[in-house]
Amino acid sequence: MKVTGSKKMEDELRVRGEVISSSINAVAIADLKGNLAYANASFLKMWGYASGEVLGKPAAKFWHTEKKALEIIEALRKKGGWIGELTAVKKDGAHFDVQLSASMAKDNSGKPVCMVASFVDISAHKKAGEELLASEVKYRTLLEGLPQKIFLKDRNLVYVSCNRNYARDLKIKSDKISGKTDYDLFAKDLAEKYRTDDKKILASGRKLDIEERYIEKGREILVRTVKEPLKDTDGATIGVLGIFWDVTEEKKIRDEKEKLLHDLGERVKELDCLYGLSLIVEKPGISLERLFQEAVKIIPPAWQYPDITRARIVFENKEVKSPDFRTARWKQEADIIVHGKKAGIIEVIYVEKKLDVNGDPFLKEKRKLIDALAERFGRITEHKRTEEELKKKMRDLERFSKIAVDRELKMKELKARIKELEAKLREK
Fold first, then answer.
1. How many other C-beta atoms are found inside a 10 Å radius of the C-beta of residue 62?
2. What pLDDT score does 21 carry?
């Protein structure tokens, strides 16, 4: 059966009608006056109307701003088409946003016959976009409100972004850091140091938490830097996120606290040494030689590095010393003075080189300690010698007293004998 041209056109129109009718996009047709002549099921559902409630009504009535709708209709008449966003009004008065694409339909002679438009509800998409924008604003506000410096680099260690605090240090605007590298911003040694750390993070995929040098306003400060690998949804490292802040004062306070605790520990050791010496002295009947033997054992623990400290006491040609005592470059000495004359020395050595921040192997307080020990040894010796001399004199006095008593007894006996002899002579 042969299909005529008219029949073919009818079939094409029917197919097109079915496509429009079943389209998931809302589709509407208005006459040249702007009144609705057709609305598909998606349009009715989107606006909340029944089929008979929209036909013949002005298209402008379905929009929040009627003036804007009339401007679009006028644009269709003049330009033949319009694409953009518009706020629509449902039957119940609720507003929603749509993406509108409209055109003027013409016949074969080019004469306008109607206006055709399709609509996509973009309310959810637009809301998500607004929420994302709000989230980004909050994130940026939070980022800019932090006192720390924050930056982001890509896999090639090229800066992507940073916050204002960091940009201010670099004397640039935060949006101008994109595309720069550390070589553009820092001295070569610092740039290479920063990049070496970043490469380790990219290679290992692990966080780095360190203290390092940083130049701020032309002066070097100490900062604490935390760098994290930035990963994509597949877990691949795609960059480095860094945050750092000034810890110069914090480090100073920490160092002062550590020094205070260290100094306190040293003073406790020194007091223990002096107290230990007093306990040795109080032992009944202890000799000077025995006292020095025990004292040489309590001296090394009182010094800063007990493991490498050795002690020696030389007194009146006698010597007591720590095991493994030997001649060393790093030593302290103090003279033992007894009754104004040098009677010996105390010597403390380090068997290994140890220098403090001032280049001295010994703390200045240890100089005071060794002098105090030498002075006490001198006083102890004087006291011991005086005590021994006093005991000797007491023994001599006792001996002399005994001799005197014996002589007195003998004189009494002699006098008594003489009296006896005199009495006998008188009797004769």
1. 23
2. 67
